[in-house]
Amino acid sequence: MPPGRPARKAAVSDSLAVDLALFAVVLMWASTFPLFKLAWRSLDPVAFTAVRFAAMVVFSMGLLATARSRVRLERRDVPLVVASGLTGYFLYQMAFILGLARTSALASSVLVATHPIFSVLLTWALGKERPCRIEVAGVVVGFLGVAVFLGFWDAFAGARPGDLLSLGAAASFGAYGVITRPLAVRYPSRELMAYTLGVGGVLIVVTGIPAVLHQDWRAVGGSAWLILLYAAVFPVYVAYALWNWAIRRRGVARTVVFGFLTPVLAGTLAVVGLGESFHPRQVAGGLMVVAGLILTRLRAGRGRAAPGEPLPEQVEPRATDPVKR
Questions:
Q1: Are 251 and 18 in contact (CB under 8 A)?
Q2: How far is it, in rounded angstroms, from Cα 107 to Cα 178?
Q3: CB count, 10 Å around CB of 19?
Q4: Whether 304 contacts 256, CB under 8 Å
Q5: Which of 24, 181, 270, 301 has its CA at 20 to 30 Å from residue 312's CA atom?
Q6: Which of 8-12, 37-41, 85-89, 298-302 has the lowest mean pLDDT?
Q7: Cβ–Cβ contacts within 10 Å for residue 278, how many?
Q8: What's the chain's average pLDDT?
């Protein structure tokens, strides 16, 4: 065997492992849209989310308590942690679940995927970065895609309340990416997740108490319980462990492009699994949204992280958005 062949085979095997890991991450994220819709047939969305986040808060605090060493929260970072918890957990999750419950999984997946565009807009508004032509083009194309998808030329006739709530969720999560970025430089993901969950996650649980008490838990089927367990573990901890591992192997710019598959795969699962229908206009709008997202990310491909994305020095095991779904 030629001396260079084992090394090439190992490189190909490693590349395939990274690709499979990233596809598994995208599948976990995309599956939440149709799976949540299935679970909510017997389980109130707010009760579902409250129980899910109660488990996540306990698990996150348990990890922090058992850690041999930890990074203490500095007083100067308290306002940022509160803002991060409010935007990334409470506001995002409430708008996401209420929006998904009131629109199709296809529409929600496409509209929530626009959150990087809102990160770019907020970064410009705060004067943190000057807009470049490619990013401006990405924002324009992305929002034109949203307009086409929703049929805004009919004076919002085609837009449902759930569509607007899903856009609100995207805006909240876009703000979260910008707010959390400096925190991700100073704190490991374990501490950052525990601190921000302590704000936003607890608020979700408190807000959901009436729904939990009103829910007829005897009517909840086994499949709904399995989806709830899956939602508390896989789209969060397992997905981000694989995501960060892939970033360390391949780099930020070549990893984030897989995220563009999420709305495409989620829409496909919604059509196939839930029997949702779609209009050719929605396909065209969805493709425009994905094109806009790619354009806003081209800056990362030139060596600079896009707004809301981890910096190159952050990829060791830190992530700017640990609970996306």
A1: no
A2: 25
A3: 13
A4: no
A5: 24
A6: 8-12
A7: 14
A8: 79
In 3D space, the residue among 317, 196, 216, 306 whose CA is nearest the CA of residue 259 turns out to be: 306
Tokens at 208, concatenated: 């959901």
DSSP string, 104-140: -HHHHHHHHTTHHHHHHHHHHHTTSS---HHHHHHHH
Q: What tens digit of pLDDT does each residue of 124-159 get?
A: 887 777 767 777 787 788 778 777 777 765 545 556
Residue that wins the pLDDT comparison between 97 and 9: 97
80 versus 282: the higher-pLDDT residue is 80
From the CB of residue 71, how many other CB atoms can be counted at a distance below 10 Å? 13
pLDDT confidence of residue 311: 41
Count the neighbouring beta carbons within 10 Å of the beta carbon of residue 263. Answer: 27
Distance (Å, rounded) from C-alpha 237 to C-alpha 52?
13
Q: Are 45 and 98 in contact (CB under 8 A)?
A: yes
> Which residues does 325 contact at the CB level (< 8 Å), separation at least 6?
28, 29, 32, 231, 235, 236
Q: Which of 26, 90, 42, 98 is nearest to 226 (CA)?
A: 42
- Identity of the residue numbered 254: R
State the Cα–Cα distance between residues 100 and 208, nearest whole angstrom: 17
| Angular region, 90: left φ>0, alpha ψ -120 to 50, beta rest | alpha
Tell me the percentage of the chain whose pLDDT exceeds 90. 26
Give the H or E element holding residue 227: helix 222-233
Q: Which residue has the tokens 């969950």?
A: 197
Token pair in block for residue 214: 């009103």
**212 vs 185, which has greater pLDDT?**
212
Q: Where are the domains of the chain?
A: 14-312
Instruction: Give the pLDDT band (50/70/90) at residue 109.
Output: confident
Amino acid (one-letter) located at 193: M
d(CA 206, CA 201): 9
Q: Which amino acid is at 22?
A: L
